[in-house]
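The instructor's notes for this session suggest beginning with a concrete chain rather than abstract definitions. Hand out the sequence below and ask the class to guess, before any prediction is shown, which regions might be ordered.
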Amino acid sequence: MLFRSIDIVKAKRAGIKILVGGSFGKETVLAEPIAEFLSEEQALKATKNCLQLIKEKNTGLRAIINELGIDEFKRKVKA
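After discussion, reveal the predicted structure:
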C-alpha cells in the first residue's frame, strides 16, 4: 500500500492544506489540493478518511480519484 500520495502542507494563512493523488512514472500527475485552511483536527479527520478509502477500495488514491471524480472524492473525504 502506498502512502506517498497524501501530502499535508502548512499554509501561509492559518491552517493546513491537503493535496492528494500525485503519481510518478510514465504518467506523472501532480497532486491536487482537496482542502485548505483546515485545523489540525479537520486535517487529521480528512487524512483518516483518505486512508479508509484506500483500505476499502484496495488501490491508490489516483485510481480512486479517477473512479469517483475529484468533487465526489472531496465530498467523501470532508464528510
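Then share the key points. The chain has three helices and three strands. The longest strand covers residues 32-38.
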